Amino acid sequence: MTSEIDHSAGTEGAISIAPSRYALCVEYAGAAYKGWQKQKQSDVDTIQGYVEAAISKIANEPVSVICAGRTDAGVNGTYQIIHFDTHAKRDLRAWTLGCNTHLPSDIAIQWAVEVDDTFHARFSAQERRYRYLIYSHPVMPAILAKGVTWTYKALDTDLMQEAGNALIGEHDFTSYRAVGCQAKSPVREIKHLKVYRVGALIVIDVCANAFLHHMVRNIAGVLMTIGAKEAEVDWAKQVLEAKDRRAGGITAPPYGLYFVDVKYPEKYSLPKSSLGPYFVDISG
């Protein structure tokens, strides 16, 4: 925290305390919420709404947060990064343990660090990473029913990977974004797309410089159709080249989607969490 002399109000020698900026990591199960972003209606449950309320109690002043990437209703996060400015000076444990005492059991602050004012949770991010979890089994699950996407169909992960390879690189992803997507450009760069199996779970792991609205869920919908052998491998590429959302088939459900990582410049030295969700025992 820094101090500076403020003469703008005409009171010579008055001291203005510059606010501190903190970065926090938030984990949440999204099934009970209408997405990350706070809504105008006060009775709509959002993750941002609960997080801001908890931080404001610890800070003893109103606090607004900025996130790395807004997630939709039902979508989960294991490494959602936020930042906020406050005049309150608290021990870092207060921002974690203290906030968690004021949060629902399906939202938790994982860590907190003080950062300089050049850090921005959204605009400093260089890459974002999602995992989409599919429970491929003849019988629907009771445990994690809202934590995975269930299909009774047997999916061929080799076919899904082959199809997904066509999406790696920089492309116009118009066919893979929601019709109402507000991004100015449909061009994004997928750094990697991996499909693998962990027991009955199939994981679609996607990293990109940024994502469009519903982009991962639309990719998952196409790959699941191909994995079920209801479309040819080339269909993923054909959808991409069509540049028309109507060519892309169904949008996969939100419950299997997890926001699992964000990459920032090393100068910020943010803690790295294990790639989530924790029950997917895979590194890399």
Task: Characterize the structure shown.
It is a single chain. The chain has five helices and twelve strands. With 284 residues, it is α+β, with helices and mostly antiparallel strands. The strands form two sheets. Strands 3, 4, 5, 6, 7, 8, 9, 10, 11 and 12 form a ten-stranded mixed sheet that branches. Strands 1-2 form a two-stranded antiparallel sheet. A hairpin with an 8-residue loop joins strand 4 and strand 5. Helix 1 packs across helix 2 (92-100).
- The best one-word shape is globular
Poorly predicted runs: 1-11
> What string gives the helices and strands in order?
EEEHEEHEEEHEEEHHE
How much of the sequence is in beta strands? 25-35%
Mean pLDDT: 92
Keywords, separated by commas or semicolons:
284 residues; Alpha-Beta Plaits; 10-stranded mixed beta sheet; two-stranded antiparallel sheet; 5 helices; 29% strand; globular
Describe, in short, the structure shown.
The protein is of the alpha+beta class.
Mind sketching the topology for me?
Layout: E1 3-5, E2 15-17, E3 20-28, H1 47-59, E4 66-67, E5 76-86, H2 92-100, E6 107-115, E7 127-136, E8 149-151, H3 157-164, E9 169-172, E10 187-198, E11 201-208, H4 215-227, H5 235-242, E12 257-263
Parallel strand pairs: 5-12, 7-8
Antiparallel strand pairs: 1-2, 3-5, 3-6, 4-5, 7-11, 7-12, 9-10, 10-11
Helix pairs in contact: 1-2, 3-4
